[in-house]
Design a protein that fits this description.
Oligomer: single chain
Structural class: alpha+beta
Order of helices and strands: HEEEEEEEE
Strand content: 25-35%
Largest sheet: 3 strands, antiparallel
Length: 130
């Protein structure tokens, strides 16, 4: 093979490698974009979650289940707002928003009485917990 033919073959091979590298970068970029898009969708879903105010002036007990016999996990300060992921019946409680047996699931394994959460309704505002 002549020197020029070798150089031409090397140039073609270099171009093919460059094209393959560019294609890989584009694929990686698409994967990063898809991953970022999924993360943005998850963040938007959390941001879109309605937050409900607890009764003004009240510190609210968060329990491990739907009743006062369940373990106290933490307390929420006056002015706190909570999401309601699902609701379930439990112990009947009287509070500033009436008397109810509805308990709101605000985190995994965390419940508050709906009698202290301003939902604007005397009934269920979320699906029943499984």
């Amino acid at each position: 093979m002549a020197v020029e033919e070798v150089r031409e073959a090397e140039a073609v091979e270099t171009a093919e490698v460059a094209e393959a590298a560019e294609a890989a970068e584009v694929a990686d970029g698409a994967a990063v974009t898809a991953s970022a898009s999924a993360g943005a969708e998850a963040a938007a879903a959390v941001a879109a979650q309605t937050l409900y105010s607890i009764a003004p002036g009240y510190t609210l007990n968060v329990r491990s289940g739907p009743g006062t016999q369940y373990r106290l996990i933490r307390t929420l300060a006056p002015g706190s707002r909570v999401p309601i992921f699902c609701q379930r019946p439990g112990e009947t409680i009287s509070g500033p928003y009436g008397t109810t047996k509805i308990w709101d699931n605000i985190e995994v394994g965390e419940y508050v009485s709906d009698a202290y959460v301003h939902t604007g309704s005397d009934g269920y505002v979320a699906s029943r917990c499984a």
